[in-house]
């Protein structure tokens, strides 16, 4: 059984919670957002977070299992580093995104930020000056920036989302040995069409968007190694991404003879996977990246590079 | 506090306490017209004060005021709990409100009834949003009133959201509270499909009978049954059916009856995608991060004209409550990702024989995404 927290600890937790919530409400509008809190989550930090969210006007749905698209989970870790001997890191996961920050506990029952805000699974921007502590932080620490990172990676494999349209099923039946696969699974285990033969699997999604920006990332021959330069290009490209209005299309290609064990399909989707991973690592929400591939043992596809990835930003049609 | 008098052939007076901060004191005596605070004479005498542990069962988790609860005695609280559970279990089944997928607005409760009602709504998984006044598209108002009629004293409890109002009369018999009318539902086109679970009242025991069922205000009634309560039905207070079981059953009914109300016609649809979600064991309702992520990606391609079919049941005898619960759990998740309830269907249980009843290994739930067939012009 968890020992009752001391008054000092609760006070510090309250301040940390208020600080994170002051940033969170810039990302998720309380008026329009309903979050789910688990009835079995009984830690004091979790309760404080739920109460703070309720107080701010968020809709609160109490769930018994892990229901909901905006399920809240709170983690409070004790840390000790060379520069900060007594610190705590509070992290709030809300649906596919998370926010966290590290705080230093000071002897006179006060705390101060010891790190910038870290956002996971989102590229939303925060006006730091409007948060509880503003830009004030631990001496020598820059807390005026926001760091972006990927949402927690999953330990378990994702269930496959197979295509079962009549034409796909019929195509599999008719496929002769030696011809390239008409479909395969992307990095999220979503089965996608081979764009060499078919239209984009995500065409129905893209119907509502217009392409506004494009980057072609060229990979070495028979390789899925991206390289530092390409990584920087991708990060720069993602700077203009607006997660409320944009999606990113990633088409990995491998067209032409290959000696790689991965084959054309492995190279194409492996390259798409590398670019997708890079985007996700800088906070682009996973469900905003539509990754697929184009592969064939012979070249000559006009719209796609032989060994590269076409990265496009699509903006929602007004 | 608002006090008003209504003159009918039989009603002498009616005291209306509309969400006004009044404690629930049961039926007042005649003196109550002018002094409602001294009106608990008809309640059982063996009431006791509320322990803090018990109070926590009735205080709203996120909008609570413990003082409102501790001011009452245990019996009053348990009565309010029964009434609130009864009303919320009906509210959960109103299709027009889609309570599973709707955020309701509430103000901070200022009465014991309000507190218990909000707590039961929280426990029912209804999303609540605190507002400072009657704002929002689904603002919840509630009330309780008391009247003395030729047939005895009546307490009327009601809860309403937009056009939908649910109300019921209750009366006190010995130390219990019992329904004294059908549940009146206004503003719903599905009144006759709403089921009322009154077993929680029976467990109080006694010698009484009451009617169970629903009706609209214009008296186009649904099925009615008479419920008889015997002394043998009495359960110890700590053995009374938990409100969670009543609420859970109401949620199940909502999802299952939704499929029955409008079974899908798949003639003009083609299968598009299929996913198999894995639950840890046959009784688990935890979807897990991987399943949730896949479902999120599946929903990404969903359009308003599409359908989702959830196939969870494939059992030896063609009936499986655990499977039904898993199917509902998956449907809930789709609904939470803004897929309309009317677009998600639970496939009927199919008789099979591949799984031994004692088998508790991971359990699959198949999800099939349908889209309209594109006709060539």
- Which class best fits the helix and strand makeup of chain B? alpha/beta
The residue ranges of chain A in which pLDDT falls below 50 over 5 or more consecutive positions are none
**Count of alpha/pi helices of chain A:** 6
Rg of chain A is: 23 Å
Which percent range fits the helix content of chain B?
10-25%
Q: What is the general shape of chain B?
A: globular
Largest sheet of chain B: 8 strands, mixed
Average pLDDT score of chain A? 88
Helices and strands of chain A, in order, run as HEHEEEEEEEEHEEHEHEHEE
Tell me about the largest β-sheet of chain A.
Answer: 8 strands, mixed
Question: Strand percentage of chain A, roughly?
Answer: 25-35%
Strand pairing plus helix content of chain A: what structural class?
A: alpha/beta
Number of strands of chain B: 16
Distance between the termini of chain B: 68 Å
Element layout with pairings:
The complex is a heterodimer of chains A (318) and B (377).
Chain A: H1 7-27, E1 34-38, H2 44-56, E2 59-63, E3 71-79, E4 87-94, E5 97-106, E6 110-113, E7 117-120, E8 146-149, E9 161-163, H3 166-174, E10 183-185, E11 191-193, H4 203-206, E12 209-218, H5 228-238, E13 246-255, H6 263-281, E14 289-296, E15 308-316
Parallel strand pairs in A: 1-2, 1-3, 7-8, 13-14
Antiparallel strand pairs in A: 3-4, 4-5, 5-6, 5-7, 10-11, 12-15, 13-15
Helix pairs in contact in A: 1-2
Chain B: E1 13-17, H1 52-55, H2 66-70, H3 74-91, E2 103-106, H4 112-123, E3 127-130, E4 140-149, E5 152-161, E6 164-173, E7 176-179, E8 183-186, H5 199-202, E9 208-215, E10 224-229, H6 243-261, E11 269-279, H7 288-300, E12 307-311, E13 314-315, H8 321-336, E14 344-346, E15 350-351, E16 363-372
Parallel strand pairs in B: 2-3, 8-9, 12-14, 13-15
Antiparallel strand pairs in B: 1-4, 4-5, 5-6, 6-7, 6-8, 9-10, 11-16, 12-16
